[in-house]
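Would you mind writing out a protein's amino acid sequence and the numbers that encode its backbone to help me picture the idea?
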Amino acid sequence: MAVIALVSGKSSGVTCSALALALASPKPSLLVEADPAGGTVRTGYLGGEGSAAVGLHRLAAADRQGTLAREFSQHFVSLDRDHSGQRLLLPGLTDPTQAPSLARTWGQIARLLSVMDQAGHDVIIDAGRLVTESETRLSTTRYPAPLLHRADAVLMVVRTTQASIAAAAPAVRVLREELAHHGTGADALGLLLIEEGSFTSSQVQQHLQTPVVGMLAWDADTADVLTHGAYKRMPRTLLRSARTAHQTINELVTKRRVQLQPAGVPTVAGRAS
């Protein structure tokens, strides 16, 4: 299992990509809408189902009251039509102004997500567009930086277009510095490409000096379903490519966990599969 955070330098389909990975995961999955700009999956893909009484926006109060660990899983909703519990969602903020209230809670949420990982879930974090406070630091008051610090992999979502690559370049530089000094290492950073434009993966990798970890097909029909509602006929091209992307992402996670494992401590077989 793995904790994977998706980010962008500018709007590049992070939410759609994160949702595709959550739905295509070979393991039970939890999608966390941590974008400080707000969540859209409940009102979009889920068609408005579920109560606004649960979600990320309620966790800051639970943290202040000392009940966060006990209440955490009560804020999950099902992404499955059959409510099997195999695909879960922690809905995001309902108002961007709520983001600063979580500044002291992100670290606690990161630890609880590690517990979900250890319990057998792939945790996919939609961290949205980066919010920075300098050329080398993420914002500590308006962005869920602790989630990125503890993630096994942090993937910059980039469309294979000139505009998207250009927007990603400064964000990649910030993330590389952030993860090197405050995370688990700069090698946690990779690229998740959406094959919309004419640039090849090797060209994007060379330009951004960052390895391509996964590729998602440009599939406007599936993206429309994931964005606007689950009750249309679901095309499968994007989800097939998301399943393939999981294989290469988990290879990165497995490699990094072995490298970060303290000497003399055996790894748990299959933990990052």
